[in-house]
Design goal:
Length: 275
């Protein structure tokens, strides 16, 4: 049973603890270099790896400008929520205060706001929702957010649902069962997204794309379904929930809204086990 939806204002999101994110970031400390404040961000992944990235305010500002101009679309008929994402980032982003690098109150406020910006961007790219429904944002935003935070491993770049599906494959193999192969003598089935064959024995080797079976037993190319799971929580064939823990949430900045599904995975749901 899916719990009732929740609505978060910008203010309430500041208090929200994102235990469901496989990547977490905190602006843990600051230092002063060449009369500029450097913000040190601690990033931790579900694979228990932690590292630090450091940027000046000007570098955060340049990152925001690229996000607004290049990595989100400006189409009035955007299929996602690019304008809402820009509005949220603009609402959180700290204003520039010249010559106040030594003011601890200003620095502390900036730390808090920059952490909110980074956390919301991770929420937008790692949880299935409206931000990634836009093809332009899906192709540009995650790779640049991960690059800014120096997330090097593809394992750590997976979304919450992608991790959950990968963990389900481990559970299926451990139980030594495959519902699709038990039902059919054929060695291939059709991926219902790209409509190409899925080789049940060897995956799709020509494009280095292995098969993935969902809990409902429908089979897809891994790349195909992983793209889909960036903005939906359902199997595209039967509409069954990929994860039973999904909760629909909305954020309403000004006239626009951003929607995503906060799934309270927690640490245990992001470990190698059946979801």
């Amino acid at each position: 049973m899916v719990p009732a939806e929740e609505c978060h204002s910008l203010h309430s999101l500041r208090q929200h603890v994102s235990r469901d994110l496989p990547l977490r970031v905190s602006v843990s400390s600051t230092s002063v270099q060449a009369k500029s404040v450097v913000y040190n961000c601690t990033v931790s992944s579900a694979s228990k790896i932690t590292w630090i990235v450091s940027y000046r305010y000007s570098e955060f500002l340049a990152f925001r400008v690229k996000l607004e101009d290049l990595w989100t679309c400006h189409d009035s008929n955007c299929s996602g929520s690019c304008q809402a994402l820009r509005d949220i980032v603009a609402a959180y982003f700290p204003k520039k205060w010249p010559l106040l690098f030594s003011n601890q109150v200003v620095v502390a406020a900036r730390k808090r706001k920059l952490e909110l910006v980074l956390t919301h961007l991770l929420r937008s790219v790692l949880l299935p929702g409206s931000a990634m429904a836009c093809l332009h944002a899906r192709q540009n935003l995650p790779i640049n957010v991960f690059g800014f935070l120096r997330v090097k491993s593809d394992v750590d770049r997976r979304s919450a649902l992608q991790i959950c599906v990968d963990n389900y494959q481990i559970a299926v193999k451990k139980e030594n069962r495959h519902a699709v192969t038990q039902r059919s003598d054929s060695k291939t089935v059709g991926c219902m997204i790209c409509l190409c064959d899925v080789d049940l024995e060897h995956g799709h080797q020509q494009c280095d794309n292995s098969l993935v079976v969902l809990p409902c037993d429908h089979v897809f190319h891994r790349w195909c379904i992983f793209q889909r799971l960036m903005f939906t929580i359902h199997c595209p064939v039967c509409r069954m929930h990929v994860s039973p823990y999904a909760v629909t949430n909305y954020c309403h900045p000004t006239r626009n809204s951003e929607q995503w599904w906060l799934s309270d995975f927690g640490d245990t749901q992001l470990q190698p086990k059946r979801c």
